[in-house]
């Protein structure tokens, strides 16, 4: 009986920890977008479940920075977080309304450090 109760308790703890990290990553991405988009009128944002990867290299991160640095929708000189050996990632879709009223849709993958303290890189999908 004790083993069963312990198992159920551990299952609930894992569930609540995962939900907290999912929420934290959404807030991190949303704050990043609000800070770095030229047009901060974000709407209809949807977030995938968060997952982890060890397959994103330093060279790939630098290439993502180079490509996104040329995107006119984002400010220049974006400050990124420090990469960890395991990165967390999530795909986000949203739309922005430009000053001229035109709407543009985005679907991007955001890579975060393992502790969810900063966006390391992002790419268009």
Structural account:
Helix content is 37%, strand content 30%. It has 125 residues and is of the alpha+beta class. Strands 1, 2, 3, 4 and 5 form a five-stranded antiparallel β-sheet that branches. The termini are far apart.
Low-confidence stretches: 9-18
The rounded Rg comes to: 17 Å
Helicity level, as a percent range? 25-40%
Strand residues, percent = 25-35%
Overall pLDDT metric: 87
Total strands: 5
Using brief descriptors, characterize the structure shown:
125 residues, alpha+beta, 5-stranded antiparallel β-sheet, 5 strands, globular
Short characterization:
With 125 residues, this protein is of the alpha+beta class.
Chart the SSEs and their pairings.
Blueprint: H1 2-36, E1 42-47, E2 51-53, H2 58-68, E3 87-97, E4 103-113, E5 119-124
Antiparallel strand pairs: 1-3, 2-3, 3-4, 4-5
């Amino acid at each position: 009986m004790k083993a069963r109760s312990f198992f159920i308790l551990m299952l609930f703890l894992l569930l609540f920890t995962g939900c907290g990290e999912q929420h934290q990553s959404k807030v991190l991405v949303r704050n990043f977008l609000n800070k770095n988009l030229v047009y901060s009128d974000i709407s209809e944002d949807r977030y995938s479940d968060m997952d982890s990867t060890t397959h994103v290299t330093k060279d790939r991160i630098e290439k993502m920075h180079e490509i996104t640095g040329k995107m006119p929708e984002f400010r220049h000189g974006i400050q990124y977080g420090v990469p960890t050996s395991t990165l967390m990632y999530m795909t986000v879709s949203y739309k922005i309304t430009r000053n001229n009223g035109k709407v543009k849709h985005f679907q991007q993958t955001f890579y975060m450090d393992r502790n969810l303290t900063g966006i390391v890189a992002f790419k268009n999908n």
